[in-house]
Recover the amino acids of this structure.
């Protein structure tokens, strides 16, 4: 194979109560990576589109290529050479798993080009290194679902142990991205290191409730469990109008509403596409009343993860 073009989806990490342990993939937006074989060994970035020139062009500094270099190092493949074009289809610092989508698309495309020596689960070990480069922490709740699709639980980091759980078919996500930027590193820095026993108990109850609710298609339990007493209260201050937008979403019928990843995007889960659409408009209107423009993405939970768009 001399050429491949692959897509990897945006993701919603944390999903309210599951900081660093829950994440799911959506249908769109997502990043696209093109790899073209070249005769000389080594990986070079030839173009990045859609980042307004903000991402590093050096292969050893950009998460899309760092993860590919890790893979080649692991395979002790020092002969391989390719040119990389990255299409950034979502804003940086959006809370939609932008760096994870690039890293997942990168390792997925390279793996395909090499004849698939790794399973998607095995690709995770390389993809998390992209998160370390992008945000200083190798969290897997974006790269996990970006690579294997669906709703993913990170049961353990040491060793990495992730699995998918089934979700109701009628479950829709609304992602609303306000035109502001939050740096993931900063959004992690402001978090407290200690959690009170009272909050730990509430959070564990909600984590268990959300998993059971999703697996049993119990929408009321999903709704009662989409509560984050630890992270959301601290990070909400980074998002103007957070409480008003959340209120508008719940009034319109969303099952729950919280911060997508480290923010500033906010997400909801709803029963049915139509409700999810109305919820998005209500949220957008509330941001607009405060003079903040926003984009809405409505999608089912993407069960497939990355996909090949073209090969040759
Ligand atoms: N779990 C991570 C965080 C996701 O909330 O910092 C970042 O996208």
């Amino acid at each position: 194979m001399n050429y491949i073009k692959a897509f990897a989806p945006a993701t919603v990490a944390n999903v309210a109560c599951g900081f660093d342990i829950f994440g799911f993939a959506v249908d769109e937006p997502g990043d696209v990576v093109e790899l073209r074989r070249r005769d000389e060994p080594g990986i070079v970035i030839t173009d990045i589109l859609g980042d307004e020139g903000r991402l590093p062009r050096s292969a050893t500094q950009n998460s899309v290529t760092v993860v590919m270099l890790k893979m080649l190092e692991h395979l002790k493949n020092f002969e391989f050479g390719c040119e990389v074009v990255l299409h950034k289809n979502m804003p940086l610092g959006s809370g939609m798993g932008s760096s994870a989508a690039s890293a997942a698309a990168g390792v997925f495309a390279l793996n395909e080009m090499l004849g698939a020596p790794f399973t998607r689960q095995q690709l995770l070990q390389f993809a998390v290194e992209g998160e370390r480069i992008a945000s200083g922490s190798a969290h897997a709740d974006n790269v996990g679902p970006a690579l294997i699709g669906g709703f993913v639980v990170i049961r353990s980091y040491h060793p990495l142990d992730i699995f998918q759980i089934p979700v109701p078919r009628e479950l829709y996500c609304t992602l609303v991205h306000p035109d502001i930027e939050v740096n993931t590193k900063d959004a992690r820095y402001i978090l407290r290191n200690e959690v009170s026993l009272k909050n730990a108990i509430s959070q564990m109850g909600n984590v268990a409730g959300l998993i059971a609710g999703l697996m049993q298609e119990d929408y009321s339990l999903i709704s009662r469990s989409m509560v984050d007493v630890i992270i959301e209260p601290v990070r909400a201050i980074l998002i103007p109008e957070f409480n008003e937008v959340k209120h508008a979403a719940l009034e319109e019928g969303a099952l729950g509403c919280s911060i997508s990843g480290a923010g500033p995007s906010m997400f909801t889960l709803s029963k049915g596409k139509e409700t999810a659409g109305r919820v998005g408009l209500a949220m957008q209107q509330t941001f607009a009343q405060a003079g903040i423009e926003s984009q809405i993405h409505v999608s089912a939970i993407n069960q497939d993860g990355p996909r090949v768009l073209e090969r040759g």
User: Anything to note?
Assistant: Residues 3-166+302-311 form a domain with the Ribosomal Protein S5; domain 2 fold (CATH 3.30.230.10).
